[in-house]
Design a protein that fits this description.
With 161 residues, the chain is an alpha+beta fold. It is built from 1 helix and 10 strands; from the N terminus they run αββββββββββ. It folds into 2 domains: 35 residues; 117 residues, Sandwich (Immunoglobulin-like), CATH 2.60.40.420. Strands 1, 2, 3, 5 and 8 form a 5-stranded mixed sheet that branches. A 5-stranded mixed sheet has the order 4-10-9-6-7, with no helix packed on it. Bound molecules: copper (II) ion (CU).
Length: 161
């Protein structure tokens, strides 16, 4: 079979870029641990108010874990519970979030925290808040007429001051 020279270049380029992309995705997924939000933890979204830990949304200190605090968040149209938290600077926080009704977003401005909260699933993310300041949390998945009013505030404070 005769292949034109340009055809060979194109094939090499095409197969080469495919291999390159697979390598990038592979490194990102297996080495750096980038994965789609896990759907490992499921929950009956109609029972959220009765199921721990979502029956008590808020920030609490934990002992003996890789993180210092657990922040339990329940999103619903059109608010987050809790509406404001005070986090000591430098602490590691595990965010545990879900939604009561429709899909909501959970984006923390000025950080790389950005989650999609889906009914029936629990979303978790561990992060360290190492800069003091106020961080606005907004919903970035359109959820209805009050979408633009959905917000929460992180106040990262130096407790020694
Ligand atoms: Cu929204």
């Amino acid at each position: 079979m005769h292949l034109h020279r340009y055809e060979k270049w194109w094939l090499t380029f095409g197969i080469g870029s495919l291999v390159l992309f697979l390598v990038i995705v592979g490194i990102s997924a297996f080495h750096q641990g980038h994965q789609p939000p896990s759907s490992v933890k499921t929950i009956n979204y109609e029972q959220i108010d009765k199921v721990a830990p979502f029956n008590e949304p808020g920030l609490r200190k934990v002992e003996g874990k890789d993180w210092d605090y657990e922040l339990v968040v329940v999103a619903s149209a059109f608010m987050y519970m809790p509406t404001e938290v005070e986090i000591p600077v430098g602490s590691t926080v595990k965010i545990i979030a879900t939604t009561k009704d429709v899909v909501h977003g959970y984006g923390v401005a000025g950080t790389n925290i950005n989650m999609m909260l889906e009914p029936g699933y629990v979303n978790e993310y561990v992060t360290t808040m190492d800069k003091t300041g106020e961080y606005l949390v907004v919903c970035n998945e359109y959820c209805g007429t009050g979408h633009h009013t959905m917000k929460m505030m992180y106040k990262v404070v130096d407790i020694n001051e």
